Structure formats: structure tokens, C-alpha cells
Amino acid sequence: MTQTHKLADFLALSREHPRYLAPLECELPHGTRAEVWDTGVLCLEPASPGERDLVISCGIHGNETAPIELCEALLKRLIAGSLLCRQRVLFIFGNLAGMNAGRRELDENMNRLFSGAHAQGERITQERKRAALLESYVTRFFSARGNSERLHYDLHTAIRPSQREKFAVYPFLHGAAYSASQLAFLQASGINTVLLAHAPTSTFSYFSARRFNAHAFTLELGKVMPFGKNDLTRLTELAGCLEALISDPAWQPPALQPAQLEVFGISQEIFKQSEHFRLAFASNVSNFTSFTQGDLLATDEQQHWHVKASQEAVVFPNADVAPGHRAALMVVPLPLADLPLG
Ligand SMILES: O=C(O)CCC(=O)N[C@@H](CCC(=O)O)C(=O)O
Ligand SMILES: [Zn+2]
């Protein structure tokens, strides 16, 4: 079997080797180099790349399958040559063992292990080893040249249904301006809700934003479903924008439509302290459900959390996280006019 044939189903090959895949290289149609850096990690480099360096990651949580299927389809077209690759692109399928087990994580949440968090404490877990390797691959990719526009879209789906099906988490920028052209890209991708992080985190998108000054986002693209059960037509706009980014260096999204964009800030973050933690609302409450001031949100032994602002909506409520981890975010609408835009 030729190297190119081996890559024809790179996701299947990676899932067959969830811990390690020996590096391999080959040339694709139109002179694009394809380099396997590890299992689930594939770098595409055209002979004369445009000025964007693009990381597309998915499956950091193993059971978030819609983005994995989207990336698999995109990659297959690039490898076959039916979609032209004209930018450097790094594809990352994150937690292959988690995918094989149909689980979000095996030992711990990989998306809390970046920016060096994988090296804190004594634990050695599969997710820690993988997060350390993924950091090194992103570093290698972005460090290969200095004058590119760096982009990283980390694709996820949410555990609960959402009143806003798709939304982006914009990592904390330490006071820098938010990118109007990136917000326009999100809109063109069918994402009209943006949640602004209020502090540094140990997520993958924050790592790329902070370390490499990349335009980086966590994109929430619907609800978690098993492989084969996703309606990928709901992601057509995002797929089209990623294709355009990869295949047309001159492509720009249509101008931002401010009236259509809904921006939220974080009013409070609820952290689980112990196994006594309980959410005070039903397990079927969806993301972006609103609560009124004073409503009880959660308890943990003597500690109680209530709605503080006149109205707050809940995002990512999850009582099953490990103690010490975020169990919910409370968010409030922010006028776009109040944001520094660049
Ligand atoms: O639905 C949920 O409760 C979690 C969905 C998810 O995995 N979200 C990401 C968001 C990362 C970020 O804040 O940038 C996560 O929790 O890792
Ligand atoms: Zn996720």
C-alpha cells in the first residue's frame, strides 16, 4: 500500500493506533506535502502556501463526534485532491482512545490540561501525555514561520441542548481588541453567539491565543451525538468557510453584521467543591436558559450560589465534573458597541 493510500482514511488509521502512529510523509495531488506527525495529527503544506496558518482540532473530547465527522470529510477531500490545499493546515483529532470508547475522557478532561497544566501535580494520565504532545505539535506548526496569520478553531459539541445551537467561546485576550474579521468569519460560519472568557483558562484555544497570538476559538457546534447520528447539514456554513479558508488565500468572509451578533460576558463561574455539589435545576435545562435575580442555582454543603445580575443565563451546567472544576458558567448579554474591536 502506498503512503497516500494509507492516508485515504486517516481517522480510521489513527483510531486503529490510538496511542502512537509512526511519522510518514507523502505528496498529494497538486504538490501538497502531507506529514503525519503522530496519530491523529496531520500537517498539510502546499508548495507555495498563502499567509494563513490554520489549526483545526476536534475530538479533544472523544464523544463529540459531529466535528470529528466534519474534519474527516474535509480531510478526505484534501487528500483526494478534490479540494485544493493552498494554506498550511494542521489537522488534530485529539482523544482517539476516548473516541474508541465513546467517552468524553478516559482519565480526565483534556481541555483543562493545556498551557502546561498537564505537568502540574503528580498524576500521569493518557490525557496529560496527549495534551503535552498536542502543545508541542501546535508549537512546531506555528513556529515554522513568523509572518503568517495564525488561526486555531477547536471544534466541540455540548453535552446539553442549547437555546443557541452554535456558539463560540472567545478566549480571554488580556485587554487586546477582539477581531472584527474573526467575528465576521464566525457569522459566515453560522455562529451568531459569542461568549467572552473573562480570565485565563487551561483550554486548547486559550493556549494558542496566548502563546502564539493566534485568533483562536472553542466552537460549540450542537449537541453531543454518537458517530453516524449527526446531521452534518447543520454545519454546512462552517464547512464552506473552512474550505474557502484552505483553498482560496484571497477569501474573506462577508462584512460583520453587528445587529445579528449576540455577545455574552461571564457574570459568575460556579466551581464544584465536593461530591455534595448539586445543581438546583433540572438535568434537561438547556444552555442559555435564563434565570432571575436571586434564583438558587447550585449548592455544595454550606455554600449556595444564586443569580446575581437582574437576569443571567446558564452555560455548560454539569454536576458530574471533578471537584475543583467548573460546573457552570452564568452569562449576561453585552452590547457589541462596548467591546474594543480591531
Ligand atoms: O457541554 C458542556 O458542558 C461542555 C462542552 C465543552 O466541552 N465545552 C468546552 C468549552 C471550552 C472553553 O471554555 O473554551 C469545555 O468545557 O472544555
Ligand atoms: Zn468539548
UniProtKB/TrEMBL annotation:
Cofactor, free-text remark: Binds 1 zinc ion per subunit.
CDD domains documented for this protein: M14_ASTE (cd03855)
Pathway this chain belongs to: Amino-acid degradation; L-arginine degradation via AST pathway; L-glutamate and succinate from L-arginine: step 5/5
GO biological process, one term: L-arginine catabolic process to succinate
All copies of domain AstE/AspA barrel-sandwich hybrid, residue ranges: 260-333
The protein's name: Succinylglutamate desuccinylase
Keywords of this entry: Arginine metabolism, Hydrolase, Metal-binding, Zinc
Principal EC category: hydrolase
Catalytic reaction annotation: N-succinyl-L-glutamate + H2O = L-glutamate + succinate
Stretches assigned to the Succinylglutamate desuccinylase/Aspartoacylase catalytic domain: 52-239
Tagged with keyword Metal-binding: yes
Cross-referenced HAMAP family: Arg_catab_AstE
